[in-house]
């Protein structure tokens, strides 16, 4: 298990353990990033804001 942390997503037999990277990968794969680059950027802003809030705990 990379970094000894969860969650871990296995892609093609390779583990990926960074939750934001996994979320962005899945969003791109399943066309959840919005209709254009602006929508994709807003998705990134929301993910990054949640990470910032979590660090403030």
Question: Summed up, what is this model?
Answer:
By secondary structure, the protein is mainly alpha-helical.
Structural notes for this entry:
With 57 residues, the chain is mainly α. The protein has one domain. 53% of the residues lie in helices and 11% in strands. The chain is built from two helices and two strands. A two-stranded antiparallel sheet has the order 1-2. A hairpin with a 2-residue loop joins β1 and β2. The relative contact order is 0.12. Its EC number is 2.5.1.18. Belongs to the GST superfamily. Sigma family. This is glutathione transferase.
Let me know the average pLDDT: 87
- Number of extended strands: 2
Strand order of the largest sheet: 1-2
Which range best describes the helical content: under 10%, 10-25%, 25-40%, 40-55%, 55-70% or over 70%?
Answer: 40-55%
Assess the beta-strand content as a share of residues.
5-15%
Radius of gyration: 13 Å
Distance between the termini: 26 Å
Number of helices: 2
Outline, from the CA principal axes?
flat
For the record, the count of structural domains works out to: 1
Biggest sheet architecture: 2 strands, antiparallel
Structural class, judged by helices and strands?
mainly alpha
The low-confidence parts are none
Order of SSEs:
EEHH
Domain GST N-terminal: 1-34
Family: Belongs to the GST superfamily. Sigma family.
EC number: 2.5.1.18
GO molecular function, one term: glutathione transferase activity
Which helices and strands, and how do they pair?
Elements: E1 9-11, E2 14-16, H1 19-29, H2 37-55
